[in-house]
Each structure stands twice: as structure tokens, then as C-alpha cells.
Amino acid sequence: MESGIEREQILMDRGQLPVTSLEFNQAMSDFKTMFPQTDEDVIEMVLRSNHGAVDVTIDQLLSMNIDSEKEKLRSQSETNSQNNDEV
Description:
Elements: H1 4-13, H2 24-34, H3 40-49, H4 54-86
Helix pairs in contact: 2-3
């Protein structure tokens, strides 16, 4: 089963999905503001891999940030559990 991002990419490749594009430097500036915790090189890689497609880039960066936050919470939970076990 394909994800929403994969489905959008397929439609975009077929020319069936309207694509919102911005001038590269403007898009990079906007994405750095929207995703301040994400490394600039990662933002650029995602934007370039999507050929400047703003909507797909936003979806992928959001997904990456959600996964990162989940991992942080899991690590904190494990640390707290270990600290409680030591008491």
C-alpha cells in the first residue's frame, strides 16, 4: 500500500497533480523558518529530490520531524524508566 506522499509523487510524475513551486532561495528560506530544527542540507536535499514541489516537500519534512519527535520521546521514556529502576 502506498503512502499519501508516494501517491502524490506518482500523480505529480504523471502530470496529474498541480505542483506549487517557489523560487529556490525563497523556498529554502521559508522551509528553514518552518522547520528550524531540521538541518539546512536535509531541507535542500528533500526540496531538490522533489524538483521544487512545495506541497510534497512540506509533507516529507513534516513526516521526518514527527518521526524525530517520536524517537526523542521514546528515548526520554527509556531514560526515565532506567532512572526509576535505579531508585
